[in-house]
């Protein structure tokens, strides 16, 4: 195509040299030269476009020939995963039921007061206290109570009053020598006296 354009241009120029005096011919030569230049530029642009298309085609061939890495799970994989999730959920529900049952059992145990018979320690007559003032009698019957989180002496006394055991904070402190609000900690078992028990 370029050779043809070149020979046309050369022929036109040669012809143009012969008829240089004719202005109309010169205009036609100029017009043909411009068109010829446009054709050459268009051919160059088409050549670049063709090269780009060939490169795209080559890239597509490479992609087609490259083995695809399977990043997707098969239906079997999804079914296995779903079964594992169901198993885990079932185990979670069983554990929850077990925990709730244990909490319920513990609540029942904590709600039932356990009677405890306190035996006064015998003091030999020669070691009897020299203070003639009679000491207030501490009830010997009552309940053991394991201290729980958030408990206070007043809350414990109030809880036992609600159950019919009319006990005061002072009576609880007397029945548990050394017991104060600062020595009351979770897990410690204290004695709750029952003033009405005989």
Task: Describe the fold and architecture.
This protein has 198 residues and is mainly α. The protein has two domains: 2-65; 105-119 and 139-198, Roll (Membrane-bound Lytic Murein Transglycosylase D, Chain A). Helix content is 58%, strand content 8%. The protein contains five helices and three strands; from the N terminus they run αααββααβ. The chain has helices at residues 2-18, 23-65, 75-111, 153-162, 169-175; strands at residues 114-117, 141-146, 189-193. A three-stranded antiparallel beta sheet has the order 1-2-3. Helix 1 runs antiparallel to helix 2 (23-65). The longest helix is centred in the first third of the chain and has 43 residues, at 23-65. The protein is rod-shaped, with a radius of gyration of 54 Å. 5% of the residues are buried. Residues 116-138 have low confidence and may be disordered.
